[in-house]
Design brief:
about 350 residues; mainly alpha; Dna Ligase, domain 1; two-stranded antiparallel sheet; 14 helices; 6 strands
């Protein structure tokens, strides 16, 4: 037998073996695991790898072949797309069906929620209802408490202790990505956010606040204003120092974000009528900080208040493109308003 014929035979055998493997894999992936409709609960933890997931599926009696499951994921290039959560699988599903559920998370009893930095309690409530996680009014009722122990029996958070007597939980529901069960009580959702705040506000940050003679409530309140008004960390640090000096000098903060909080609007430059709306939260009419937070700020906004950047400015405005212009005098500020905000 010459070399060309031998080579042809080898190639044919390899191709047939590959075809057989492909057909066998396709059959295994698409075949039912069993005839049983029994439901099996399986928890996929965040960070678990394909090998661990396939092992757990095999141990739970949901797949017959770890190898087929892992090879299918590799061929499909979806190893990194499996979502964590608590799943309910019938034992008669195929590997392909289970994989589809794991990729889109539709069979999971958990939902991923993303709380955006600067959202108010009302915005969080509307979002949770839209996601089908919680009733909006139930959430707002729970978040309206002053003492967190009213809804969380073991929720005696020391960072809440220096708030005013009328303050709710606005400002302390830490913006982040969370995974919650679809039937989770609103108190448990709030607990996750408060627990996260407790972790993010480190001992070092708390000590710095105490060393400055300030309260966490004051820090969070000012941070909630900066979160709504400025985009960059450096601008927030500049504005924090600016606001501190205005307050010390007895000059109203004149924060547009506090006016929008009162009116419910989202204007870059509130009208004169808006700035005259009577409310203790209107910092055009009342000196000092507003009575409490006007949003739930990010860690970077909180750190900007704790570590402000010293400067000599007393005014600033946000241009339509989102950048901030600082001014030393009212004359300079009015000139910038005419330059950047006039139609």
């Amino acid at each position: 037998m010459n070399k060309s014929k031998l080579t042809l035979i080898i190639i044919t055998i390899v191709l047939l073996a590959g075809l057989f493997f492909s057909l066998q894999l396709t059959y295994t992936v698409n075949s039912k695991n069993s005839d049983s409709e029994q439901i099996v609960f399986l928890q996929i933890e965040s960070g678990q790898g394909v090998n661990e997931i396939s092992f757990n599926l095999k141990e739970a009696g949901l797949i017959k072949s770890q190898f087929a499951f892992e090879v299918y994921l590799w061929f499909s290039r979806i190893e990194s797309e499996l979502k964590a959560g608590e799943y309910q699988f019938a034992q008669n599903l195929s590997i392909k069906e289970i994989t589809n559920y794991l990729v889109d998370g539709s069979n999971s009893n958990e939902s991923e929620i993303v709380i955006i930095e600067g959202w108010r309690l009302t915005e969080i409530a509307d979002y949770l209802e839209e996601k089908g996680v919680a009733n909006s009014s139930d959430f707002l009722k729970a978040a309206a408490v002053h003492d967190s122990r009213e809804i969380i029996p073991d929720g005696d958070y020391d960072f809440l202790s220096d708030r005013s007597s009328q303050a709710d939980l606005e400002g302390y529901l830490f913006p982040d990505t969370y995974r919650v069960f679809k039937d989770t009580a609103v108190a448990e959702i709030i607990k996750k956010m408060l627990d996260n705040f407790d972790v993010k506000l480190t001992d070092e940050l708390r000590q710095e606040i105490a060393d400055q003679g300030k309260t966490i409530f004051e820090i969070v309140t000012l941070a909630s204003v900066l979160e709504k008004e400025l985009r960059t960390d450096e601008d927030r640090k500049m504005a924090a120092d600016l606001f501190y000096r205005r307050i010390e000098a007895g000059i109203p903060m004149q924060s547009d974000a506090t006016v929008n909080y009162v009116t419910g609007k989202s204007l870059l430059q509130p009208s004169y009528v808006d700035t005259q709306a009577e409310s203790l939260y209107n910092t055009y009419l009342h000196r000092g900080l507003p009575p409490g937070p006007i949003s739930n700020p990010s860690l970077s906004a909180i750190e900007a208040v704790i570590y402000p950047s010293a400067n000599e400015y007393y005014y600033y405005l946000n241009k339509p493109d989102g950048t901030t212009v600082f001014s030393r005098t009212l004359e300079e500020h009015n000139s910038n308003k005419f330059k950047y905000l006039s139609d």
